[in-house]
Specification:
7 strands, 13 helices, about 290 residues, single chain
Length: about 290
């Protein structure tokens, strides 16, 4: 898979009017005045609303495809739309071959892990710069597009990046909850994707491994699993410390990420062995390519 993901397409929240015209109005693609023109042409020619709007030059084919996706609860964004990283290809290029690969990975995880009643999964790479955080972000988006209530937790308390990927303002997050300095209301719902929420890393602590090993983390994990269908944890790179082992031991499942022509096979094998010794199950591995 190629994680040079491109920008996400933002999805509007569900509204009472899910018609093409209503969605175009809600998204600001047409005005109430121009909608009247569209309705007149639609009635005169006996054509669909979207076709009439296109004939009048008010919207593009891409606009129509986007609102159609919203009708079927498959939110995505147009290039340049939203405040998200342009590497979120699951949002901006949902019909690309790369995202098809992401959906295939999602299907395998649903069959091999979620179908067993498991909800939490740690996503971890060997070294920093392996593309793990970006992969985790895109995986979270495709889970949400399936209609699964999805939470992406930035558990990388050393070098977090999910706040940058999703354009979140600096605020409290996971570390602050674990330290008893914040509550679950610091979780941000990503309105563009309806079923996606993100819990940022929060204040960078001096003791990340110890925080993740506290009973407070196990309690939080249980609470999150009661509220979400899928909880993905973006972990710090394995080479930076034992944070990933602490996460794996408490969530039970790990998805390994390796970078093509970059991550040594020996390092992957060593990480796998230590994960198994921690009591976690290695659900699978993904090779990403830049």
């Amino acid at each position: 898979m190629n994680p040079a993901l491109q920008p996400l397409v933002s999805a509007a929240p569900r509204t009472a009017d899910s018609s093409i015209g209503g969605l175009l109005l809600a998204s600001g693609k047409i005005t109430p005045e121009s909608a009247e023109r569209v309705l007149r042409m639609q009635k005169e020619l006996g054509i669909r609303f979207g076709e009439a709007a296109q004939r009048l030059g008010l919207v593009t084919e891409a606009d129509i495809q986007q609102v159609l996706a919203r009708q079927f609860d498959y939110p995505y964004l147009q290039q340049g739309e939203g405040k998200y990283s342009d590497k979120l290809i699951a949002a901006y290029q949902p019909f690309s071959p790369q995202v098809e690969t992401l959906r295939a990975i999602r299907s395998q995880l649903m069959l091999r892990w979620m179908a067993l009643g498991r909800k939490s999964l740690v996503v971890v790479g060997v070294n920093g710069g392996d593309g793990t955080s970006l992969f985790a972000a895109n995986l979270a988006v495709v889970f949400s597009q399936l209609g699964e209530q999805t939470l992406l937790v930035d558990a990388n308390l050393r070098n977090p990046s999910q706040h940058e990927i999703f354009g979140l303002a600096g605020r409290q997050g996971l570390s602050d909850i674990l330290a008893g300095r914040a509550e679950r209301d610091v979780i941000t719902r990503i309105e563009s994707f309806v079923d996606l929420s993100v819990l940022g890393a929060g204040t960078l602590p001096p003791n990340p491994q110890e925080l993740l090993s506290r009973p407070a983390f196990s309690s939080l994990r249980t609470e999150l699993e009661s509220s979400y269908d899928v909880v993905l944890y973006d972990s710090a790179a394995f080479s930076l410390g034992s944070d990933a082992l602490a996460l794996a031991a408490r969530t039970g499942g790990v998805l390994l990420v390796a970078r093509k022509n970059h991550t040594p096979v020996g390092d992957i094998n060593a990480m796998t062995e230590q994960m198994l010794h921690s009591g976690a199950q290695v659900v699978g591995s993904v090779l990403v390519d830049f």
